[in-house]
Write a structure and sequence with these properties.
mainly alpha, elongated
């Protein structure tokens, strides 16, 4: 069959599957309730199918394949496979066990896949042919969905960038108009909560539409990185609680204004420091991931063409240059030379690298190799899968960079403008009070209560710092240390720019004598 016709048939098959997965209103509601579980399963399915396909090339039965899948580590997907295996051990046949368990799957595609797997197990179809077709079709559909998701996210970013600046400026315009014509506080009290709600809605939209591409391994990671990840979680939780308490005290007026602003600003310093060091540690993992496809290609080629053992293959490969990945390969070769079991050696490699990409593909390669799958066949599958994940990460990073290029400078600028406006409002309010106390009334201006407006201003700054850090974290694929770093950055830069601009403008107006203008007695 010509390649063009084959591609057309694959696209048609993907279109049919997509049409079968159109959601009802009830299913859409469940998608919202179980959004995180569905997102994790959707972005894990490519590697789960790759793992099953690699093991299937060992020419094992459907039952053995299910038992193998029950030993994997794919979170909620593995839990379903364990339930299927448990039902089989209780005496229920495999097709019936799959049909019983598939009802618990939240992701619609996973339910359909389990249904087709049950049918294959019932009629005795070739598992390799089935998984080949399933994997190819899913990857076409998944790639297409990722492209559309990136387009949606870019459009959302454009809309959010307009809302981010205009909503804050609308609040400031309302404050100015209230100072000139009166009645501003009532409108501000309803506008600010609406603006914050719009920010939160955008954050939830990004959460539902973004990817989940962890960089650090979920299961195997070094002790040093594990301790640092625990430190990150503790720092985030403790700092957010401290930040919210300090902000609440500042908004309610229980602490002096300058002291409250300083406490809010310095509460982000631990987050910024931990996030900065953590992001530098992630750079090493990114470098290791970049060299992994080359390593697995040479390893599978060596095993296939030369017919050597894994020990001999690593002995030969350890002489090659893989950049920063070379020390890990040499330690792996040394462990095998000492007679350490291959499974233990592979686990040590995964723990040393602490990479999710390496863990996913090493698990598939080592398990398939243990079952006797030909390296010549599984090597290209695993290599292409790792390259696909690296490409997807770069596209996600491009989208996240677009967002960072907008909000990273914009949030401090908005906070600085807020400080500028509040300095002017405070100065002119003081002038109007002095005019009125002298019996001179300005018909085009009204005295505005600055203390009653400040809580809304502080609430906007708090919302800007938390919401924008969360959005960048989601757009980056929920990578580690991103939330920690950008939350600290926005807290410090937002409050610092607000305080500096407020102080500088107030002192400047005082210097030129505007705040000391007194009405004449005649």
């Amino acid at each position: 069959m010509p390649k063009e016709s084959k591609k057309d048939l694959e696209r048609l098959e993907a279109k049919k599957i997509k049409e079968r997965t159109k959601f009802s209103l009830r299913e859409r509601l469940f998608l919202l309730i179980y959004a995180r579980t569905n997102k994790y399963q959707w972005h894990t399915m490519p590697f789960f199918l790759m793992h099953m396909l690699a093991c299937a090339y060992a020419d094992i039965s459907s039952l053995e394949l299910v038992k193998t899948a029950a030993q994997t580590r794919f979170g909620s997907i593995t839990s379903l496979m364990k339930k299927i295996n448990l039902l089989v051990e209780m005496g229920i046949d495999l097709p019936r066990s799959i049909e019983i368990t598939r009802k618990e799957a939240r992701l619609p595609y996973l339910r359909d896949f389990l249904q087709r797997l049950a049918q294959v197990a019932r009629i005795g179809e070739d598992v390799i042919v089935f998984l080949n077709k399933e994997y190819s079709t899913f990857m076409i559909m998944y790639s297409s969905e990722c492209e559309r998701a990136n387009i949606r996210l870019r459009r959302l970013i454009e809309a959010y960038s307009a809302i981010l600046s205009s909503a804050a400026l609308i609040v400031l315009i309302i404050i100015f108009s209230g100072m000139l014509w009166g009645g501003g506080i009532t409108l501000v009290s309803s506008t600010v909560p609406a603006v914050i709600m719009i920010y939160v809605i955008f954050a939830l939209t990004f959460y539902l539409s973004s990817f989940m591409l962890k960089l650090v391994s979920r299961e195997e990671k070094s002790d040093t990185l594990s301790r640092y990840l625990k430190l990150e979680k503790t720092t985030i939780r403790g700092t957010i609680i401290l930040y919210l308490i300090t902000s609440a005290l500042l908004i309610s007026g229980f602490v002096p204004r300058i002291l409250g602003i300083m406490l809010c600003m310095f509460s982000g310093l631990p987050l910024l420091m931990v996030g900065y060091v953590g992001r530098r540690k992630l750079k090493l993992i990114e470098n290791l991931d970049e060299r992994f496809p080359e390593f697995i290609t040479i390893l599978s080629t060596s095993l296939a063409t030369m017919g050597t053992s894994v020990i001999q293959a690593f002995r030969d490969i350890s002489r090659l240059d893989f950049g920063k990945f070379s020390p890990y390969i040499k330690r792996m070769a040394a462990r095998l030379e000492l007679g350490i079991d291959k499974t233990i050696s592979w686990n040590s490699l995964k723990k040393e690298t602490s990479s999710e990409l390496i863990r996913l593909h090493v698990d598939a390669f080592s398990r398939a190799n243990t079952y006797g799958a030909p390296a010549k066949t599984i090597g290209p599958i695993i290599t292409n899968s790792s390259i696909f994940l690296l490409t997807l990460r770069k596209r996600v990073e491009e989208t996240a960079t677009l967002m960072k290029g907008i909000v990273v400078p914009m949030v401090p600028i908005i906070c600085a403008i807020i400080g500028l406006v509040m300095a002017i409002v405070e100065t002119f309010s003081e002038m109007f009070v002095r005019f009125q106390s002298a019996g001179i009334y300005v018909i085009f201006a009204d005295t505005i209560s600055v203390p009653s407006i400040l809580p809304y201003i502080y609430a906007i700054i708090v919302a800007l710092s938390i919401v924008n850090a969360f959005i960048i974290y989601e757009l980056s694929g929920e990578q580690e240390f991103y939330l920690c770093f950008y939350l600290g950055y926005f807290i410090i830069s937002g409050w610092l720019s607000y305080f500096l601009c407020l102080t500088i403008v107030t002192n400047y107006l005082s210097y030129i004598g505007l705040s000391r203008v007194m009405p004449l007695p005649f």
